[in-house]
Amino acid sequence: MKQIHVLNLIILSFFVTFISCSKSDKDPVKNENTVKVESIQTLADANQTFGWNLLKQELIRQPDKNVVISPLSVQIALYMAINGAEGTTENEMLEMLQCKGCDIKSINEQTKLLVQLLSKESGHPTLSLANGFFYDDQRLTLSPSFKNDLVAYDCVFEKENFSNKTQALNLINNWVKEKTKGKIDKILDDIKAEDIAFLINALYFKSDWSAGFPEEFTREDDFYTSKGEKKKATFIADDRSVPFYLDSNIKVVDIPFKDSTYSLTLIRQESGNEILHPDIYHDLIKKVNYNRAIITFPKIKVSYDNDIIQSLKALGMTTAFNPTAADFTSLGVSSNRIFINQLKHKVVLDIDEKGVEGAAVTSIGFGVTSAPPYLKFDKPFYIVLRHIQSNTIIFSGKINDPLL
Q1: Which of 89, 233, 284, 297 is disulfide-compatible with 327, CB 3.0–4.6 A?
Q2: CA-CA distance, 183 to 104, in Å (whole number)?
Q3: Closest to 403 in 3D by CA, of 367, 382, 378
Q4: What is the percentage of the chain residues whose pLDDT exceeds 70?
């Protein structure tokens, strides 16, 4: 029986808002039929479709939990891994990521441009991405072309003898802690005998709201969970002009962050437990308009940690996880077959009413007779943090119980 070696993908995302080459060794005939990705909007559109598909699968598996993912983080980690894939392994990954037949070199180039757009430095917000490839150079010799391809992702490569577990674990965990600003201080507890590499993407986002929420209006109120339980939660609130839409079955508010580069969308369905369809989401985003409204929603502090392999398998990416069929020969040379046996995704989400702009709000009118529309998110609701210009989804999820 052929032995195996394991490539691990670990995807880390931390979000906090204070509310105030075509591969050189590829088959040339195959490359003639690939589609060159010439626009970052192509990747942004793929991000939205893939992100909703992945969120749906995670919600199916954990219907009553708070589920928060970073489609962008997963997308970038898998793009990097595709650079080491061949044949069916590569094709399945591209198709799942909504880029069937795409040329990976052009994906690399456009991903670099997309990240530059998303992380433009203007003080607010802060979005940073870090990529690292940690490998046992005693058992894996990396392909020069693979290392060259990942230059577009500013990926750092760290060699370590994994037989020295303590040293290797410290190297990886310390890197994670640094790149997530200390919010995730440990991602690995052990390195198994078959592990030869860890490909890690870390994403960090932090921002104030364009207008903060005054702390004097923070209060305890009832939240009705997906299980029908009534719990006391801490709600933040304000009376303001904000993009929103509501009808008899849905409430939507799109709250901008400082500099109006990003926004956080809250969506509450009044009836039914069906998973929100992406077409409905896109339609709702087009319907929101600025108007005066009272908005209130619970503080959120969520840590989501899950291996997303089963969800990706359900979306059609299966061969990469098959120890007898996976083909990562473009990644490098090892004595045994390489496959992915872990795809860990961890997200930390922290929202409260603090922020630079919060103290500037001095009045609120909850009790006037001509009260504006009241948007209260006291039942399970969806969240989408997006880049407004491109509609790239940085985070998406569903809050079923803010106290979990």
Answers
A1: 89
A2: 32
A3: 378
A4: 85
**Token pair recorded at residue 8:** 């691990």
Question: In degrees to the nearest 10, what's the CA dihedral of 114, 118, 122, 127?
Answer: -130
pLDDT of residue 280: 92
**Cβ-contact 380, 253 below 8 angstroms:** no
| pLDDT tens figures, 234-246 | 999 999 999 999 9
Q: Is the dihedral of CA 358, 233, 345, 64 positive or negative?
A: negative
Which domains are seen in the chain, by residue range?
4-207+302-349 (3.30.497.10), 210-298+355-389 (2.30.39.10)
Q: Is the pLDDT of residue 228 over 60?
A: yes
Mean pLDDT confidence for 218-227 = 94
3 state DSSP class of 155: coil
Question: Distance of CA 108 to CAs 31, 152, 175, 244, 387, Å?
Answer: 15, 6, 23, 36, 20
Rounded to an integer, what is the distance from CA 211 to the centroid of its chain?
25
Cis bond upstream, residue 125 (ω within 30): yes
Please name the residue ranges forming H helices in 153-271. Answer: 165-179
Can you tell me which residue has the tokens 């760290």?
A: 158
Q: Residue holding tokens 């209130």?
A: 296
Q: What is the dihedral of CA 44, 210, 253, 224, to 10 degrees?
A: 110
Nearest CA to 74 out of 121, 135, 13 is that of 13
**Alpha-helical regions (H) of 62-200:** 71-82, 87-96, 104-118, 144-149, 165-179
- In the prediction, which pLDDT does 221 show? 95
pLDDT in tens, 330-350: 999 888 888 888 888 888 888
Mean pLDDT of the chain: 84
Buried b (16+ CB within 10 A) or exposed e, 182-215: ebbeebbeebeebbbbbbbbbbbbbbbbbbbbbb
The answer to whether residues 46 and 99 touch, using CB atoms and an 8 Å cutoff, is yes
pLDDT at 73 over 80: yes
Give the Cβ contact number of residue 388 at 10 Å: 14
